[in-house]
């Protein structure tokens, strides 16, 4: 129901004159399904006097409700970021998520970005050993064979695998 229809209904049924309760704003909200600020505006259009302090009180309470909803939504987002759900013996359990740096697990971040001195100072000998192995492999130019160009996954010959510049395979 839009505002014009609500106002016509309230005038036709003389809703405000027949209202038996104490809080006419709350009664209008419940009867017509509107928020309190809308009720204040429409009751004023119907000629019902509403005190300015009451309107300010309603505005403040609506602002407080909106701030509380926003805070609750932010808390829910934070909770989803910090905790994850796992299954233990067929039941769901919430545990804290492991720490990350820019979305990468901390161990992987350290492996990618740490220098050997830092690794040595923090007694991360396994990572230091891996770093040295990778460095030695790069220096020696270790050959890592690619797949054969003359066969596809099925092992059959495919003439589309060759360029015109390649020598013939047979």
Model description:
This protein is mainly α and 170 residues long. The protein has eight helices and four strands. The chain has helices at residues 3-13, 15-18, 24-32, 36-45, 52-82, 106-113, 116-121, 125-140, and strands at residues 83-88, 91-96, 100-101, 104-105. A two-stranded antiparallel sheet has the order 1-2. Helix 3 crosses helix 4. The N and C termini lie far apart (83 Å). Residues 145-152 have low confidence and may be disordered.
Short description:
The chain is mainly α. Helices cover 56% and strands 9% of the residues.
Helix count equals 8
- Structural category is mainly alpha
Helix coverage percent: 55-70%
Radius of gyration: 36 Å
Give the end-to-end Cα distance, rounded to a whole number of Å: 83 Å
According to DSSP, the number of beta strands is: 4
Q: What's the story with the biggest beta sheet? A: 2 strands, antiparallel
Strand order of the largest sheet: 1-2
Quaternary: single chain
Instruction: Note the beta-strand portion.
Output: 5-15%
**Which residues form runs of ≥5 with pLDDT under 50?**
145-152
Q: Overall pLDDT, averaged?
A: 83
Written as H for each helix and E for each strand, in order along the chain, the element string is: HHHHHEEEEHHH
Describe the protein's topology:
Elements: H1 3-13, H2 15-18, H3 24-32, H4 36-45, H5 52-82, E1 83-88, E2 91-96, E3 100-101, E4 104-105, H6 106-113, H7 116-121, H8 125-140
Antiparallel strand pairs: 1-2, 3-4
Helix pairs in contact: 3-4
């Amino acid at each position: 129901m839009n505002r014009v229809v609500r106002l016509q209904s309230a005038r036709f049924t003389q809703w405000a004159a027949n209202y038996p309760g104490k809080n006419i704003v709350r009664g209008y909200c419940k009867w017509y399904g509107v928020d309190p600020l809308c009720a204040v505006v429409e009751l004023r259009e119907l000629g019902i006097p509403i005190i300015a302090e009451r309107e300010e009180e309603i505005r403040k309470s609506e602002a407080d409700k909106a701030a509380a909803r926003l805070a609750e939504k932010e808390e829910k987002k934070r909770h989803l970021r910090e905790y994850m759900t796992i299954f233990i013996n067929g039941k769901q359990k919430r545990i804290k998520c492991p720490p990350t740096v820019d979305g990468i697990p901390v161990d992987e971040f350290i492996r990618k970005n740490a220098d050997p001195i830092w690794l040595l100072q923090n007694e991360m000998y396994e990572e230091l050993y891996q770093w040295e192995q990778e460095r030695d492999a790069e220096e020696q130019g270790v050959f890592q064979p690619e797949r054969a160009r003359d066969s596809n996954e099925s092992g059959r010959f495919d003439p589309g695998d060759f360029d015109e510049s390649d020598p013939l395979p047979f």
